[in-house]
Amino acid sequence: MDEFDNGSSTFPRKSGAEPKEITTQHFARAALFIEEYLLPMAMRTYASVDKSEKVMTARKLVSLIKEKQWRQFTARDVMRAGRIGLATSEQIDPGLKELEEADILRAISVPTGPRGGRPKRVYAVNPQTHGERT
Predict the structure, then answer these.
(1) Rg of the chain over CA atoms, in angstroms?
(2) Which of 13 and 74 is assigned the larger pLDDT?
(3) Number of CB atoms found within 10 A of residue 5's CB
(4) Which of 26, 27, 83 is nearest to 56 (CA)?
(5) The predicted structure's pLDDT at residue 13
(6) Distance separating alpha carbons of residues 86 and 76, to the nearest angstrom
(7) What DSSP letter does each residue of 70-102 carry, written as one string?
(8) pLDDT per residue over 45-58, tens digit each?
(9) Residue 85 near residue 57, CB atoms below 8 Å
């Protein structure tokens, strides 16, 4: 055996036969490497790719929905939360449409009351957004 073939190296073996099995220790080290290095690096890389306004707004909305633990909400609820970039319907609407297309939200039209007016538009949140199983 040479210095690289001591069984504890993370480098490929320089001499000798390839290992016939992967030990739990090596598997755990590989999983840790993926979880702590590769996945965060990939998330940073891919997050910078899609910087469109509607996607950024959708991300802000999902963050707010999770923080407030909303099951249903209106655009007015979002505006009242006082978040930067979510203050007007012009800012919010593209993100809401994006989340509807992604099946994260579903628009529910509530009929007008006896005094008339514009119908209230409520958004129902997909339970999986909060980690619930359907």
Answers:
(1) 25
(2) 74
(3) 14
(4) 83
(5) 57
(6) 10
(7) -SEEEHHHHHHTT-TT-SSHHHHHHHHHHHHHT
(8) 877 666 688 889 99
(9) yes
Pick the CATH number of 53-130 from 2.40.30.170, 3.30.565.10, 1.10.10.10, 2.130.10.10: 1.10.10.10
Domain chopping of the chain, boundaries: 1-49, 53-130
**CA 72 to CA 122: how far, in whole Å?**
7
Tell me which residue has tokens 């090596």. Answer: 26
- Strand ranges (E), 1-134: 72-74, 105-110, 120-125
| CA distance linking residue 102 with residue 109, whole number of Å | 19
Amino acid letter, residue 76: R
Q: What is the pTM of this model?
A: 0.59
